[in-house]
Amino acid sequence: MKIVAFVFCVFALSSQLNAQDDLLDLLDEPDKSEEPTYVTATFKGTKVINQQSCEIPGAGVMQFIILHRFGALNDDFVYNFFGLEQANTRFSFDYSFNDWLNVGLGRSSASKTYDGFIKAKLLRQSTGAKNMPISLVAYSSMNYNTTRWEDDLPHNESDRLSYSFQLVMARKFNDWLSLQLVPTMAHYNLVEYTASSNDVFGIGVGGRIKLTQRVAITGEYTFQLNPNEYELNGELTPYKNSASIGVDVETGGHVFQLHLTNSRGMADPQWIGMTPGSWGNGDIYLGFNISRVFTLKKPKTAEEPQW
Amino acid sequence: MLIAGSISAQKFMTREGYIKFFGSTPMENIEAVSSQASSVIDASNNAVVFQVLLNSFTFEKALMQEHFNENYVESEKYPKAVFKGNIVDKVEYSKPGTYKVTLKGTMSLHGVDKAVTTPATLIVEKGTIKLAAEFQMIPEDYNIAIPGAVREKIAKQMDVTVKCSYQEVK
Q1: Sorting pLDDT into bands at 50, 70 and 90, what band is A4?
Q2: Residues A133 and A125 sit within 8 Å (Cβ to Cβ)
Q3: Which residues pair with B135 in a beta bridge?
Q4: Cβ of B88 under 8 Å from any chain A Cβ?
């Protein structure tokens, strides 16, 4: 009888302890099949460095990015105050109409280039109800060079235009490692030599390693399949592949990206297919991108029940 | 008898519970809302559970929401906030009325369990229950570190509002 009472007590006690867990099980059951869990923050910035990342700002958010590339490390570096005396600059504004479409305008000092760009999220990496291994983002820019012609040749206005395309295939492998593969193309309406190709194709890779919640190391490399040539010391030599490494630091509404790169031009066709600088020769530029976001349209939040 | 009793026990459930948290500093207000909290009340033993997916909270600023998930609560690692507890006062679930009660239990967030006690209001109607509670949470209690650079912008204490409307589970 005592044993029965003891067993009964244990059972009663354990059922009391488990009461909440049983209730949680009740909540869990259909939960799993509902919405997919989308992966967020694959990268901190919408650019890795020069390359597009798979990110766009949130719906209704305007982003302002200011970018600088200072003088080369091998160009009388100390005399030129560590290259800081001279800078190529770019600034851009972009706006996300919803959670997948972003458009923007920019202006780069190199070749006094204006550009317009469009970026669309086609697939979002997710788990749960829908398992999608990667995020897929398409990006294109149109660039308009406004420097005065220095030759006496007749030019069409369309000679000033160049374009770029980047298809970003990104995956956040875990909370510290994100990598992306970026088939890239630049199209130039006007090229320097008759032998030059109007279309330069490339394969880019980019990635980030998160060190802390707010600091990450980034890197990117874009390999050109058919680089055009430029003149260096009287000889034709292929344009270099753009390679950059950097650090992302995030503080509230800003992302600071500091980097070293061999590409000084920041408009897409400039860094993709017209990078004369070589890491080996010390044509390395210190640069930064600083972004600031402004929420223009607040997202809808659920109303508090009135009772 | 006991088993039979617990199976036929009345349970009340919602999957559309409203949870808001709000923190204010002179620099910035932070407000986030989810209407996807789920909760069950077991009328037979006064047991109550709540759970909410942290990525279901919507903020006024998209970047705040990203930082909340990525840097503060780390929702990929710890997807849910869970409360397991009891209504410590006697409630007659068959008798419509408003009951001032106390909820007592354990809050689990960001891998940390913490004992929580809060007053709550229970409104019993026919076939439904409404529950409203307001309490404070301190992010640091849950090992949610706020770095110096943004300390001025993030309140030390968040005011949490819970409003759930339950239907009887048939």
Answers
A1: low
A2: yes
A3: B160
A4: no
> Can you tell me the distance from the alpha carbon of A52 to that of A168, in angstroms, rounded to the nearest whole number?
7
Burial class (CB in 10 A: 0-12, 13-18, 19+), A131: exposed
The model carries a pTM of: 0.86
Residue A191, token pair as written in the block: 């090229």
| Complex ipTM tops 0.90 | no
What pLDDT digit, counting tens, does each position of B60-74 carry? 999 999 999 998 999
- What confidence tier does B1 reach under pLDDT thresholds 50, 70, 90? very low
Please give, rounded to a whole number of angstroms, the shortest distance from the CA of B163 to a CA of chain A.
7
How far is B100 from chain A, CA to nearest CA, in Å? Answer: 15
Least confident of A147-151, B107-111, B119-123: A147-151
| Residue A208 to residues A43, A108, A215, Cα–Cα distance (Å) | 7, 25, 10
Tokens of A221: 């490399």
Q: Cβ contact (<8 Å) for B58 and A58?
A: no
Q: Contact B66/A40, CB-based, under 8 Å?
A: yes
Nearest-by-CA chain B residue for A212: B71
| Alpha carbon B58 to its chain's center | 15
Record: contact A20-B47, CB cut-off 8 A: yes
Instruction: Select the residue of A40, A252, A298 nearest B150 (Cβ to Cβ).
Output: A252
A213/B18 Cβ within 8 A: no
Position B5 scores a pLDDT of: 42
